[in-house]
Amino acid sequence: MSYGLSYAGAESDYDSADAFLLGIPYDRTSSFKSGAAEAPAHIRRASYNFEELHFEHGLDLPRLNIFDQGDCEHVFLPEDMMEEVKFFISPAIRDKKFTVAVGGEHSINMPIIQCFKKNDIALITIDAHLDSRDEYLGTPYSHACVTRRAAEHLGIDNVFALGVRSISKEELERDDVIPYTTSFEIKEKGIERAVKKALDSVKSEHVYLSLDIDGIDPAYAPGTGTPEPFGLDPLDVKRTINLIGGRLVGFDVTEVCPPADPSGITSALAARFINEVLAVHSKYLT
Ligand SMILES: [Mn+2]
After folding, report:
1. What pTM was estimated for this model as a whole?
2. What does the alpha-carbon distance between residue 254 and residue 256 come to, in Å, rounded to a whole number?
3. 101 C-alpha to center of ligand 1: Å?
4. What is the pLDDT of residue 1?
């Protein structure tokens, strides 16, 4: 557990918190550039760059009580990461907190999804990759297996990937391909239509949004482990968060890689999306 800088505005204690934030400094299955473990600290620092409220949502938004748990342990084995994340996230989900997880690589989404009951949520990802392999480089808990593990737990009709533009032959040729929309279709037909398709496709009312920052074009988010051209623009992602709106119950942002982000722009973007999610959630808080 680290006791460094807390996320900007996270001044609540656990009991009175509406939202629960956890840093997960994990990057042991990264397949190209590593360094995502440094992201929670960089994203927290970047959070001080912004106003807490965003005028486009109205300046009289209710103020969320946010609790920042700090970081969980930086472990080595994927199995240990699964246990470590569940240890912190599962009480917060049980206590009906809105959870925000700051990765780390995308694999940190797997233990979080497993903390929800099977029919309680759907997972929508924003990602350049479909991440639907059974296993990768010898582990079923690789960041290349995120949507497959989610489909096993939630059902394939409760998983949808937005912005995909990198899929292997092995993933496309199976009978149970994870439902997805490409970034090309989003550019051509608009993000509203794609998000509507995703929301109509999943069965559960409640939606957990997992943002792999490589879903966004590397021109806007260069600091990531596996940059993939032809991505979404940040306003597409902002729009997605707003369209999911009151159905959103949790969020993670993953794959920010500070060593590949000397300008800090990618960490700043990640922090701004966390703020967007919190602002949208506060609108629907009763
Ligand atoms: Mn990805």
Report:
1. 0.96
2. 6
3. 16
4. 43
